[in-house]
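S1.2 Input.
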Amino acid sequence: MALRLITAGESHGPGLTCVVEGLPAGLEIRPEDLNADMSRRQLGHGRGGRMKIERDTAEVTGGLRHGRTLGSPIAIQIANRDYENWRERMSPWPAAERIEEVHLPRPGHADLVGTQKFKQSDVRNILERASARETAARVAGGGLCKAFLRRLGVSVYSHVLQIASVRAPEPERALEPEDFASVDSSPVRCLDEQASRAMVREIDELRRANESLGGVFEVQAFGLVPGLGSHVSWEERLDGRLAMAICSIQAVKGFAVGEAFAIAGRPGSEAHDEIFYTSERGIYRETNRAGGLEGGMTDGCPLIVRGAMKPLSTLTKPLRSIDIATLEPAEALRERTDSCTVPAAGVVGEAMVAVVLAAAFRRKFGGDHIDDVLEAVAAYEQRIEWRR
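S1.3 Output.
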């Protein structure tokens, strides 16, 4: 059983569309399953004026009836309120008068390569779809997948580890779901209060210097059974699918599972998670350096992945570029932008991890109705004598 998510829409167009195909019938969905995370995506110190305009809400237009999935594709619409200010420039149909083209690509953005690839003279034909505004639709679809995972006892959370030069200290113990209860009360979604305050100062200082900021976020998933994913082919390895999902988020340039970069410099005896067994606990590990993945499969430990995000490509003091119509030197396009979206990227990361995990459950356990899935998972847990 395949599960997939597809989005459509442009940053300043009429709206965004998300379609999720492959969820079982009978799954209960509430409006807050979609809208809570969409609101969280708009949080974070360093967001720009666009977030004062948009108040994202999801309108389900297919696949649900009376709050339960039908087993058919689920379609979601998210309106762009800012479209009223862009109606002529972004109308799906020919405009009544000539619309001025944009010819100033931004270094680091899809602008230049996109115009080359798709034979476009107007950079706006590329930047509108390449914009991170598209992630609002992904978060809505991720909300559906999170609801599915919750029925299976799986929860997904995120937090910010670094913004620019400020890095939070590594936790002294393994995090638990309850540790994330107040993460959204931090203006940068950081679990360490001192680091959170330093991150806010860093954003303020660099924003005054007309700079944008990147950073690192972490996503953790709890309650996973061993054996999601597979070792038998490269395309079935779950770490590869997660890498694609996280690196598909706009501006993300790096990915890690568990302590990947730290253990690269350690000897093998300090890199792996030893295996133990007791009659009370069953099979267990005392460490989780592998981040919950071994051989492309979940190993039953919490899944831990990280994404490294570069500073945003749109700067309030534009970088040097060219005019693609004249090839003359010019300043890059100055578009309305955020200073820092690392906190929001963590929420998007949750959605993408949820999509990958939901797809892995569907691939392994199938089932046309949610009850079929629950029975299949329970039978598997009994077969491997798994204890959560």
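S1.4 Remarks. DSSP finds ten helices and 17 strands in the chain.
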